Amino acid sequence: MVKTLKKRSWWLVWLVSALIMLSPSILVAEDNCFYLGVTGQITPFLSGDVGTGIDAPSYKDAFGTGWGVGLEGGYRFTEYFSAQVGVGYERFSGSTAQGICFDSLNVIPIYAGGKYHVLTTNCTWDPYLRFDLGAAHFGPVDTSFMGSRGNYWDPSWAFLADAGAGIEYHMAPFGIFAEVKARYLGSPSSAMSPLSDADSSWTLPVNLGLRYYF
Question: CA-CA-CA-CA torsion for 159, 77, 124, 162, nearest 10 degrees?
C-alpha cells in the first residue's frame, strides 16, 4: 500500500513539473479570444511642415517627441487573424522654431484595424503585422511671435492610417508586447491661413504594453 502511494506521488510530481515547464507554450491565447490592453507610447514626428513657405518650420522643429497612453480591445477570430479597436491620448511639447514659440499639441487617435499573426495560437512568442484606419483629433495650438500671441490651429479631426509590426510574449492570462508603426496623419485646421496651413505628417509610434485575455 505504501509503495503504491509513493509511486502515485511520484507520478503526480512528474505531472505537475511537466505542466509547469510546458505552461508558457500551453497557457496562451486560444482561438476566439478577447483581450483588453493598455499601452505606453513615444512618438517622434518624421516629416511635414507646420506652415506654408520655403522656410516654414517642420513638425520636428515645432514639437518635441510625443508621449502617450492608449487603450485597445481586440478579438482573435482565427489562428492567424485578429481585429482591434482603440483610443489614445498623445502630447507633444511645444518648441521655438524660427522665432515662433509653439504651444504643446494634444492628439487623440481613434482607430480600428487588424493583425496578421505569423505563428499559430499555441506559441509563446507571437510576432505579428498590423494596420489601422481611423481619425485623430488635434487640439488647438497657440503661438507667440515678437510679443504677439495668436491662435495657430483650431481644434479639428483628421484622417489617420498606420501599418507596423510587433511581437508579444504570452504568459496566460497576460501578454507583454512591443510594436512600432509608421503612421500618417492628415492636416490640422488652420486658424491663421495661409500662414498656418500645415502639411499632413508622418510619425513613428513605438509602443510597449500589456494585454489581458479572457
Answer: -10
